Amino acid sequence: MTAKNYEKVFKQLEKKPVKLKKFIKHNKPKERSCGEALRRCGICGRRGAHIRKYGLGLCRQCFRDVAKNLGFKKYS
Questions:
Q1: Using an 8 Å Cβ cutoff, are 10 and 19 in contact?
Q2: What domains are defined for the chain?
Q3: Is 8 helix (H, G, I), strand (E, B) or coil?
Q4: DSSP β-ladder status, 58-59 and 50-51
Q5: In degrees rounded to 5, what are phi and psi of residue 33?
Q6: Burial status of residue 59 (CB atoms within 10 A of its CB: 0-12, 13-18, 19 or more)
Q7: List of residues 6+ apart from 7 with CB closer than 8 A
């Protein structure tokens, strides 16, 4: 379910607090303790293609943008 759909459901269940509580209980996102979904890019917030080496915490697309500023060189 997308954020838009959640907003729509919350709006509909505003006047029914018991049903809203039950909806949230059964439909909230799962708590993560490890895995790809836990780590996010520090700049854009993407979850995939995450570079953690050297404590960067960036996705590969953002890393390409800031690599020169960080002191990395492109070989080839």
A1: no
A2: 1-30 (no CATH), 34-76 (4.10.830.10)
A3: helix
A4: antiparallel
A5: -115, -15
A6: buried
A7: none
Residue type, 17: P
pLDDT reported for residue 60:
92
The pLDDT assigned to 1 comes to: 55
10 Å Cβ neighbour count for 58?
Answer: 22
pLDDT the model gives residue 2: 58
Q: Which amino acid is at 40?
A: R
Q: What is the DSSP letter of 55?
A: G
pLDDT tens per residue, the chain (76 residues)? 555 677 788 888 888 999 988 988 888 777 778 877 788 898 998 888 889 888 899 999 999 999 999 999 988 7
Helix, strand, coil proportions of the chain in percent (round to 5)?
45, 5, 50
